[in-house]
Amino acid sequence: MYEVIIEEDAALEIEEIYFWYENKLSGLGERFKEDFDKRIDILSHKPNTFSFLTKIHRRTPLKSFPYFIIYRVIQNTVIVLSIIYAGRNLDELQSEW
After folding, report:
1. pTM above 0.85, yes or no
2. Is residue 95 part of a domain?
3. 46 exposure class (CB count in 10 Å sphere: 0-12, 13-18, 19+)
4. What is the reported pLDDT for 89?
5. CATH code at 45?
């Protein structure tokens, strides 16, 4: 099993997305968080399953929400760098990781 570390910037993004959905509809933020947590559980067991975004960065989509988790695998650790809206141009964001 891999240790999962969520970078501070990613944690802030998750919180912002959670509250955005919760403000749209009570309980929707919780559904977002559950979707995110399920994907993190998968990453903790099989992080190398998902496709590369760059030579060192990978991405995995959430199942029910239009977001990607951007992460790196270093030895036995998964480092979550960002969670981004799937409609954004990922090439423009690479310099931020």
Report:
1. yes
2. no
3. exposed
4. 66
5. 3.30.2310.20
